[in-house]
Amino acid sequence: MTKRIAFQGEPGAYSHQACRDTYPEMESMPCRTFEDAIEAVRSGQAELAMLPVENSTFGRVADIHHLLPESGLYIIGEAFVRVHINLLALPGVTLDQVDRAMSHTMLLGQCREFLGAHGIHRVTGADTAGSARHVAEAGDPSMAALASELAGEIYGLDVLAREIEDQGNNSTRFLVMSREPDWTRRGNDGMMTSFVFQVRNIPAALYKAMGGFATNGVNMTKLESYMVGGSFTATQFYADIEGHPEDPAVKRALDELDYFTSEITMLGVYPADPRRH
């Protein structure tokens, strides 16, 4: 039986592209929300979930960091997907016929130069793949969509212009989630460890907790804070570090972190994606 990987969004979304690129042998399973994608794995409907956590242009994806610690799932991999934005239209339509383009507001903002140069007005849609589906169903030759090339394949649209984004380095980082952790693997491009923690309520606790990573030469690639339970005083931190918990330097740094924290939850130990570097 073909294994499945769940993602949030409609077929043709960039999360769908991430699933296809990273796990081409698996069946991609669209889900309405991030919670639905997580539940699909928890319930056994899918083996893995592909969840976006941050974009190089727009920063972190809202809600994901809140969902990860409570999900009951573990990070077993990461994937970096280059976001190429394409102008999609009905078959046979030419560029000069298009006067409107529909997409998620973030993609519309990333193609200002191209749209402005061609006099194309922006129309906000719920998401990228949904906009492509809308263009296909509406049958209006003056309306186009900004979406992935995969969305064009799925909804039978032609690509009028490829890679029209203003910035040439727009990428999204995804985390691959599973029901079971796997600390046994060692990646050719290094390892990553992700965890969340809460510092003890003492002066300079965060400064002291971070000192162990500096003194042991452990590179922390991400540190983000967010409130917990609606409280302005209870702050939780999400961190990514390079290395494996069994590495001597990482072990010493985590031991020191433990001393200054009230809670640490390990989210995953996984090979670094070669595209990270």
Automatic annotation (TrEMBL):
PROSITE patterns from the UniProt entry: ACT, PREPHENATE_DEHYDR_1, PREPHENATE_DEHYDR_3
Reactions the enzyme catalyzes: prephenate + H(+) = 3-phenylpyruvate + CO2 + H2O
GO terms assigned for molecular function: prephenate dehydratase activity
Transmembrane segments: none
The organism's place on the tree of life at top rank: Bacteria
GO biological process: L-phenylalanine biosynthetic process
Pathway info: Amino-acid biosynthesis; L-phenylalanine biosynthesis; phenylpyruvate from prephenate: step 1/1
EC code: 4.2.1.51
Pfam families according to UniProt: PDT
Cellular compartments per GO CC: cytoplasm
InterPro entries, A to Z: ACT-like_dom_sf (IPR045865), ACT_dom (IPR002912), Preph_deHydtase (IPR001086), Preph_deHydtase_CS (IPR018528)
PANTHER family hit by this protein: PREPHENATE DEHYDRATASE P PROTEIN, PREPHENATE DEHYDRATASE-RELATED
Protein name (record): prephenate dehydratase
Organism: Roseovarius bejariae
